[in-house]
Amino acid sequence: MLQMWIVKKQMADSIYELIKRTSTTLPGDVLDKIDKASSMENGNERARYTMDIIQENIKLAKIKSLPLCQDTGTLLFYVNHPAGFIQNGFIQLVCEAVEKATEEGILRQNSVDTISGKNTGNNIGRGHPSFHFHEHEKDELEIRLILKGGGCENMSAQYSLPDTGLCAGRDLDGVKKVILDTVINSQGKGCAPGVLGVCIGGDRSNGHAEAKKQLLRRLDDKNVDSDLSYLEQEIVEISNKTGIGPMGLGGETTLLGCKIGSLNRLPASYFVSISYMCWAYRRHGIILDKNHKIKKWIY
Amino acid sequence: MSVINMNAPFTRDKIKKLKVGDIVLISGKIFTGRDGVHKYLHDGNQAPVNLEDQIIYHCGPVVVKNEGTGEYTVTAAGPTTSIREEPYEWELMRDHNIAAVIGKGGMGETTLDACRKYGCVYFHATGGAAQVLSDRIKKVEGVYLMELGSPEAMWVLQVSRFPVVVTMDSHGNSLHVDIRSESEKKLKELLQKQERS
Asked: What is the spatial distance between Cα A175 and Cα A162, in angstroms, rounded to a whole number?
C-alpha cells in the first residue's frame, strides 16, 4: 500500500515538473528558430523591437520560473504507454498536478463552463485537460505536453476543397493556396512568427486532431514524404516574403515552421485542417522510468 | 530608435500628436478589460469606476493572492487578441470617454472610426510577452468585477515604462490595414510569378 502511494506521488511530481517546464520555457529546437528569426530582423525597427522583447521575455520566464505567456492555454497531453496501462488512474494524477500548478500561478485559471460562464478555477472541466492515448510496444511511458493558447487557436482553420474563391483544387497546389490564405488571414493575431501544423485529408475532427499532432514534431526534422517536405519549405519561404512579420507589425519572419501530415479521405471529401501555433510554442515531453521518475526529456 | 515616454492619464492633445509607428513607454494607471468587461458594459451596467481618460488593457492576467496579507501579485500579463472587442470598443470610447486601448493584433474599421471621432489611440503590446510586461507592473491597486472570474475581472495596475507601439492613431491611420493589404498584394504577386515559371 505504501509502495503504491509512493509510486503515485512520484508520477504526480513528474507530471508537475513537465507542466512547469512547459509553461515557463521553450524547447531547444524552437529557441534555435527564434534566434535565427531575431538575426534576420535588422531592417524594420518595429520587428527588431518586437523580437528583442520576445527574447527578453524568454529569458525572464526561465529565470523567474513563471509562465512565458499569461494564456497558459489548453493542456494537450499525448501519452504513449505500454499495454495494461491504467488510463483513468493516470488522468486523476494529472488533474492533481494541474490543480497544484494552477494554485501556484504556473497555469492561469483557464477553464470556463461554456454554458454557465463560470470559471472552474482549477483548469479541470469537461474536455480539460485534453488527453490523447496511444498504446505502444515499448516498456516505458512517454508523456508529451503542448500548452496551446486561445489567440493562436482562434486562427486555426479548415478548408473543404475545391475552394472556388481561392481557386484551390484537390491537389497540393490547392493545399498550398489554402494554407497561405490562413497565413494572410492570421496576420499577427496568432502571435507571429508562428508554426503551422497541417493535416491533408481525414474527416473534420480527425483532420484537426492530426494537424495538432504535427506540432509534436521537432522544427528541425525532415518530412519523410518528399512532396510534403518540399511543400513545408515552400510555405515557410513564401510566408516570410509577405512582410507580415513578428506580431504582424511588418518584417522578415512570419512563420518559424510548417509541418504537414496526411490522413486518408473519403472520395467525396478533401479537407485541409490547419492548426496555428504562436511563437510561444510551449512543448515538452518526458520519458519515465519504472518508478515514474523522469528518465529523459524528449525535446 | 526614438521612444516617447508618456504618463497616464493622457490629455487628448497628447494623443493627437501620436502617429502610427511611434514606440511609447507608458507609466501610470491602466485598467484590464477583456471579453467579460466589454460585454458587461455593453449590456448597460454601470462602470465600477470612472473610466474617463483612462486606458483599457485587453489582458487576462495570472494573479496570485497572498492569503496572509490579502495582497495580489501579477505573475504573467501579456495582451489578449483585441479584435474580439470590436463590437464593443467604440461604445467605451463614446460612452465612457476612455482615451486609449492596449491589446494585440489590432482592431477593425468601427474602432478606427471611433479613434478618429473621439480622439483615442490603439497601442499594440507584444503578444506572449507576459514576463516582460508583468515586470513593468509595479503594483496591483485593486480589482473590480471579480464575479466574472480572475482573468475576466477589471484589475487596476500601476505600470512603469510599459512598452507599446501605436498601430492605430486618432487620424484614421492603421498599420494593420496597411500591412494586410500589402501582404495580400505581395502573396498574389508571388503566386502569379510561380505560375508563370
From this structure: 9
The position carrying cell 512582410 is A243
pLDDT in tens, A156-167: 999 999 999 999
The catalytic site residues of B sit at: 38
CB contact under 8 A, B149 and A46: no
Report ipTM (2 d.p.).
Answer: 0.92
Would you kindly state where each structural domain of chain B is located, as residue ranges? 3-196
0.90 exceeded by pTM:
yes
Give the residue among A190, A192, A188, A161 at the shortest CA–CA distance from A175. Answer: A161
Q: Which residue has the cell 516505458?
A: A140
- CATH number for region B3-196: 3.20.130.10
Q: Taking CB atoms and an 8 Å limit, are B75 and A50 in contact across chains? A: no
How many other CB atoms are found less than 10 A from the CB of residue B88?
20
Number of H helices, E strands in chain B: 6, 9
Q: How far is CA B158 from CA B7, B29, B30, B176, in A?
A: 11, 5, 6, 28
Q: By three-state DSSP, how is residue A196 classified? A: strand
Hey, CA dihedral for A186, A188, A189, A190, is it positive or negative?
A: positive
Per the prediction, chain A carries an average pLDDT of 96
List all residues of chain B from 62 to 91 with a beta carbon under 8 Å from chain A: 62-64, 75-78, 80-81, 83
